[in-house]
Amino acid sequence: MLEEKLVNYTQQIPDDYQPIFIGGAGRSGTTLLRVMLNSHPNLCSGPEFKLLPQFMDLYKQVNSSSYQPIAESYLLSSEYIQSIFATFIYNFLEPIRNYSRAQRVVEKSPHNVLVMKELVQVFPNAKFIHVIRDGRDVACSLKRMEWTNFNGEPLWYVENLENATKYWAEIITKGIEDAKSPLLNGKIKFVKYEELVSNPKNIMKKVLNFLEEQWNPSVLDYNKVQRNEEPVESSTKQVSKKLYTQSMNRWQREFTDENKEMFKNIAGSLLIQMGYEDSLNW
């Protein structure tokens, strides 16, 4: 039997290891939620790790049917592959948790929301938070970004408002569809940015209850936490301030009539589905 030939060379991960993954379209408020949770004494979260989606893409390849004959030739069972990736990622995230003396680690990278099904296979006790924001405001914010990939090439979805709209629709749709998977039953919570900034105490109580963590008012004082050792991110300046609602409905100031029609054609129905509008008459 294949399982009898395997030797577990990986470091043992605690049975109760319960990482928390935050995701959502870029410029949706994922950084804000990260720093709020990082202020909780039981939780720690560093800046965007960024690479989990790429790790999970590799995980999917290694587990694909086309790769299975090769895996079997190397005596690699699916359980062994899972343990390799779990330990690999665990060893990236464990140092900051240990340094922070927190009980659990929170990793926020927007595109975690695209690989939730894979991450929960690797970490069965993980929980996920998908942050959602009005796509019109997301698009307005994205078009101002000068984001590039690791090769320094501009990201397609910050080039113009239309691309930003398509990107928002793709991310939201993928996140919603994957959340229907039995693998994620009871493991994912949707949080609206607008509700978070308008009623932070109520929303954070719900988030912490979902995470099975006790309420702690420190999550509302996130702006008092020093982040001098962290690299500067797109939202670093904003999350160093107290909560504010000025970024809500910015599309009303910036969208032209042409912009409105474009957005309606691409993502108008999704905007209704998410509860931001009840019709296309806006």
Automatic annotation (TrEMBL):
Keyword Protein transport: no
Residue ranges of the TM segments: none
MF terms (GO), sorted A to Z: protein-tyrosine sulfotransferase activity
Species name: Salinibacillus xinjiangensis
Official protein name in the record: Sulfotransferase
Keywords carried by this UniProt record: Transferase
InterPro entries: P-loop_NTPase (IPR027417), TPST-like (IPR026634)
Pfam families the UniProt entry points to: Sulfotransfer_3
